[in-house]
Amino acid sequence: VSQEHAWTEVLKCPYEFYAGLHADDPIHELPGDDGFMITRHEDVVWAARHPERFTSRRIRYDELDPEAAEIAQAGYPSPPTVVDNDPPEHSKYRDLGFQAFSPKRVQQFEPMIRRLTDELIDGFAERGRVELMGEFCRLLPMAVICEMLGLPRDDAADLTRWADGRTELLQKYVPRERALELQRLEVEFEQYLGREIEARQASPRDDVLSEIANTTPDPAIECELPHRVAMVLMIVSAGTETTAYALGSAIWLLLTHEGLYERVCRDHALIPRLFEETLRNESPSQWSQRRCVIDTELSGTVIPAGSRVLLMFGAGNRDRALFPEPQEFDLDRPNVKRHLGFGAGPHSCVGAPLARLEARIALERLLARLQNLGLEGPVFEPWWVESTVLHGLGELRLRFDPGASVALS
Ligand code: HEM
Predict the structure, then answer these.
(1) Ligand 1 centroid to residue 243 C-alpha, Å
(2) CA of 245, closest atom in ligand 1
(3) Residue 65 or residue 370, greater confidence
(4) Distances (CA, A) of 32 to 3, 54, 211, 287, 301
């Protein structure tokens, strides 16, 4: 069994593995000089909040293969902006590129999200069955991002291919030929966004991409075209697959826990809690990476300077020290908001307000329009995607009463 296979298998259902580490080995050293996993909630939060010890700068572990580096030349250089930067520069880029994602600003997109949600549901409502991941969850977040940025909906399929390619490239174990192909996709993605940004610099439109293309940066930071491309790449790639998996897992958890579906159908005000407990229970982003800068002791283990460090958000979310009976899906958990599904510290998810809004609308509309929703077939074995980076369902087949659905405006 290759290391990659072992790890993807673990990530499909990593919770027993996490529980073992919490008890005996909370700072787990990975084999082959691969770094350390931080698994306790308290330690993950501490590390995330101390970027002077656990930096995000230039943490790409492996040097690019020379052929991949040559392919990359045709794209834009990728200077550190947000994910791969530390405060204080990090926050200046965050202020620059993500103004439209503030809790207040995202509210203005509610009617658009509602319209897109209903359009997608219209596509299958009469049928009485749907493969929700492919026909809804994977489509809605990209459609929303396209509308916000002002990119043509017809480009959504390409953008999805590129964004998925990026996630795949983040995996540590990608066969070389595939890695080169992914590098080519990355270049196409960068060139596409470069063109779209330049078009809006020449002639601004009424869209979020024009804002990102033209805002004046704080004089302390550089903000040329490659910086702007890097920030938009992040919006498209970090904001779509994650949200898709969160939506799918929320529905799956809703339908596999006795009485939960009925309870939430009776009271839609529970939907935001359902979403937060989903993010705790089945976090789409199970971990993120840092590099340790100064020898640092956590839970009795010294992490040496220079080590790669994995902040295991998914493990922190299952830490019984904070969340009793962590394996239980409990809508009444009083401290659910302390989950690490959106990370913690300065890098915590800038898209969280959008993801929350999208989830609320999507879940409300699905529950209102699809009556008697249930999993298709007598037995449903969840199929978790093969990934060392993200965690979510590959497929979610549902049935419901056909034709009972009305799209309210
Ligand atoms: C349910 C959906 C989502 C989940 C589970 C999620 C999860 C996360 C997590 C765990 C982090 C922290 C990474 C770290 O500390 O290294 C993060 C950061 C980030 N997310 Fe999300 N995210 C979601 C939706 C979105 C959306 C809709 C956007 C769109 C803008 C987005 C954009 C970003 C960006 C740009 C960062 C980097 C922030 C920084 O480094 O300062 N995410 N996300």
Answers:
(1) 9
(2) 1
(3) 370
(4) 10, 20, 45, 19, 18
